[in-house]
Amino acid sequence: MATILVVDDELGIRGLLSEILSDEGHTVELAEDAADARAVRERLRPDLVLLDIWMPDVDGITLLKEWGAAGMLTMPVIMMSGHGTIDTAVEATKYGASAFLEKPITLQKLLRAVEQALAKPAPRPAANAAPGVLTSHAAIAHEAGAIGGAQPQPPAPTGPQPEQVFDLDRPLREARDAFEKSYFEFHLAKESGSMTRVAEKTGLERTHLYRKLKQLGVDLSRNKRGGLL
Prior knowledge:
The chain has helices at residues 11-23, 34-44, 60-69, 86-94, 107-119, 131-143, 172-190, 195-202, 206-216, and strands at residues 3-7, 27-31, 48-52, 77-81, 99-102. It has a five-stranded parallel sheet with strand order 2-1-3-4-5, sandwiched between helices. α4 crosses α6 (131-143). The chain has nine helices and five strands, in the order βαβαβαβαβααααα. The protein is of the alpha/beta class.
């Protein structure tokens, strides 16, 4: 599997991305700012970088340009932002990003973008690209889920119902696990798979919630439409 560098100034997002990607079999390195990212990039030469745009010292676009100008953009880079626009998506792909993910990031789009980025070589930066090329870049960003507000709303979930029947004639742990699994499956379906909203609803921290779902055997692939981070 791949070595992936996650660059984000938010500890919670770094931790959750690390756990998800590690579960997929990848080796994950973390950096909280551009300085850390430069050091890890030089030391490990990762196969892929997940790079946040808005960071306190040097922003992600600037770091992407820096790597491109220095000939160090030898790996695909997926940009992330909670304030994405079409212009930002086009700029990111123009300077060499392979995809642009808008936060909150869905589990489906995260894993798909990672898979696609690792399956093809890093794109060459094209600062003076023609308008037709920019259109292609925008299409790549749109496919990765970058263009905020332009995505159609997912259909209403048709998952578990609020009223269910449980077999209580069994050990307490088994009965409790069955209830908790149904409880979380119901709320994940109700919130269209949004880990953030389910965490708020249940009062659990997102990383704890993710671990709990994995422990209970909840099939996250059934609820991958909503926001994860």
